[in-house]
């Protein structure tokens, strides 16, 4: 277990796209995406804070975005009930997929980015074959009883967290749906890198660590405030620290094993909900979204020098 | 023609209409109306067409432009017209025209010009009084003649005034300085105003001219004097009649008559016609008489119907003229020479004046000028007395500050005199909204007080009165409606059984008892219901009551399961919020279900499909939520799943005889299975009569049936087994004859070359007949006991017969037995038989032994078939055996001898009972059939049953 180092703010980016709804890293963490309430997605260099591209074409607020494994495409979800598959370099929408009956809340790619999985307010999880020109979903999973807040996938499973308090695991290999009922509305779901556990941010201001195999509750992390916000949580790349946003403008870093607060990151003194965050896939680095701004936090100071 | 020359024309004639030209309908628009001068030039142009044309074609000068005057030497003609230039020499032609600055035209001289023209020219305003009144004469407008003929010279008075230095437009009097004149004008205008509005009385007795304020004016122009302003006195015509003010009735004087009132008018100096007429009258020239009619200008006959009277004649010879002269002389004594006294002048009566008090203010008391005007004292007083009760009550808000002060013992202000009535503002309360008033006195509602318009609660006496009155009215109403059935009882519940009072009473009791348990309800009702009521009726009533109680429960109860009051919700919310965030133990639940990923998804994930894609396709959930309708709601509230109870009507008096029915030992056929029968009955009854009868199981079987009622069908197998095993045993007892028959039949078939297959069995026949798989209870029935079912003519047995449903259920056993007997005795009409039409031609054929044998086989097969075919017949018929057997035998034998196919229809009914015998017989007669069968097959009717045809085919 590596020793914990405090996170320090590295970059603050005013996204200038209204409220930032979500911040995401690309596959290797060299770029980041911000989804704005002005219906646009912006591609940034998180280190320098340079705006690389703006993707506009949604008809409503963008709620989530994900980059493909080769970082050549972006898929984004919006409240306009559509999913757009973007070409990163040209900035043109390659495909617009409409089948959700409600606003789309979350989207993700599978490992080889051939399938996009989206979940929406219509309680449906949809799998889209993004490689072909098929405009209707490959599969629709309508088991959830409430809005889907997060979809996640790995080699053989699809996870869908819903506000009905269940994490549904669709095991493609086994052909089995496992419904793990937590009982509290789940606002966000993150996978550990060893794919053994799930980190579920719940509505009752608790982040819960779930065991994938048994479906047991491993730990509860308390300390932050969720209120009625959809606060996101994450796990750092070393699988040792859990991070979550808070409605009082802070971010909390918990120790995975002990559950104690390692750091309470004061993001802003002016309040504002830290609702979205993203963890760097490799480094000890995080992105936070608060109001109109995006913050990059990191432990090591060397990167800066490296970049320079 | 001559006359034309003497006529004079005035004005310009309209242009003569040309015949061909249709006059333009559209008038020329204003913007198109262009004024042109004589040269055809546009007169007005530019500056919004207000500018004048100038110069040559709106340019300066002439055609050549403006050229300066060339020098012209005047040396040659020095003395001649040098200063002879007139202004006209420097004028344009246009200036001298009609619209120019110096128009050169013929016009009347000032003396003869009309007043307005004169005024225009002189710039002087004529006296208003001097202007003739319009519309006084018979012809409206200005008098034409007067306009045409004008006096050439001024009136004498005017001439005198003029000679004295007066000019028209000036006033008369000594000349004034500027200051004086200003003062005079101010005074005059003031007086004028007063006079106009208030008459002579309004004028102040002595004028206080404020000379001081104008002293500051410059006094240096004292020497310049001005003529005084023309003062226009107002003439008041005395009122001679008693008409209303300013009323003038129709002029009763004849038109243009001498006595025309116009002559009385001061300004009408000329009355040409009057004079003429008068002269004509004197000369007696006017044509009189009714025969000629009365012209517009003629005086009407005075009185054509008047009797000639002697008074009209003058008998005196005396000359009257000198007398008149004398009189004139006498009268002229008081007048100046040359003048005569005005005889027409009416004596001016002094108007009575009333001395009014100084502070009198004229006012219409009936009419309130404004809502905010103070009330007059009388009315205020009246109102005061009317609202006396208010003060006697709690009229706290009606007290004015003084009264309040008085009550509080404060120092009273001196100005406020005690005698002054405390004027209450009646609008004070009116300002309050009704709601406020109600809020202020909302206890009035609970008290039953009366809130008046003024927002006051009436004293209790009034309330009491009202209450009494109300009570009286209610009593009256109650008396009136006593006979009528009350729609709503005291509890406000609906009365669904008004038609039957006793029932209603029972219902009310039932409702008030609030029983929920079915048994209790039954008992409770049984205690009330009359003995005469049948069991079924009782059941019905109970059901009705329960239903009615559900439907007609009070609205709040009805709505309770749908709505929750907001207060409750809020309270719950608050409660929830107040609850400390309890550390709810999260209990993880894991549910695993099958889920089939689509092939493409697996492919994209690079995973083999689970189970090689052999997973069951998840059934498409097409659960469309039905729309909520009122009917659904009503239905569900009454017939919810929870409320639903499988109806089970197994009347005891039917159940009892059952074992007996089953028991008859010689019966070769299986006994009727009671549980299915019950089931069928259930179905029927549940559809038609929703009455519930309690079933008290008696036998073990019944108990089993009762227990298994709620079990799924798959679990009922045991039950059915137990039931059918029972019958199996019986069957085993009767097996020998059955087996014998079967063996015999098989033997026969062998002999005939027919394949000995199970097709002979009734079950197989059935299967052939009805290809659809057995459903419902039959599915489970047939599975465990195939052979049994094959033997059993199950379907016809269970087939519900519409007409007999109730009979089955409720007939007593004796009745049923009797009925069955009757039915057995009587031949069932062939129409009742279901199936293909039977050949009618066959019996006509000679009954050859081969044919007979053939027919026998046919009959046998038919029997077999009919045994299993659903038939329209009484279900109980075949139950009775012993009683029919004797007759059966005879019939069967006779049918054998005679036409087989003919009676087969009738026989078919009882075929089961006579089965062993039949088979026996057929086997005996089959020996001779063998040879002929082949030859006969062509002649066989095609409409024979399906089985038969099949058999034939198989034979080939």
Automatic annotation (TrEMBL), chain A:
Where in the cell? Cytoplasm
Keyword Ribonucleoprotein among record annotations = no
WD repeat windows: 13-54, 55-96, 97-138
Per the record, the GO terms for biological process are: mRNA splicing, via spliceosome
* Keyword terms, alphabetized: Cytoplasm, Repeat, WD repeat
User: Which residues, by range, are in coiled-coil regions?
Assistant: none
- Please provide one cellular component term from the Gene Ontology annotations of this protein: cytoplasm
Q: Which SMART domains match?
A: WD40
Q: Which family does it belong to?
A: Belongs to the WD repeat MORG1 family.
| Protein name (database record) | WD repeat domain-containing protein 83
Species the sequence originates in? Drosophila erecta (Fruit fly)
Automatic annotation (TrEMBL), chain B:
Of which family is this protein a member? Belongs to the GPATCH1 family.
Gene responsible for this protein: Dere\GG13747
Please identify the protein, giving its name as recorded: G-patch domain-containing protein
What are the leading ranks of the lineage? Answer: Eukaryota, Metazoa, Ecdysozoa, Arthropoda, Hexapoda
Pfam families this protein is in? DUF1604, G-patch, HTH_TGH
Tell me which positions the record assigns to the signal sequence.
Answer: none
- Quote one Gene Ontology molecular function term: RNA binding
Give the UniProt record's GO annotations in the biological process aspect. mRNA processing
| Cross-referenced InterPro entries | DUF1604, G_patch_dom
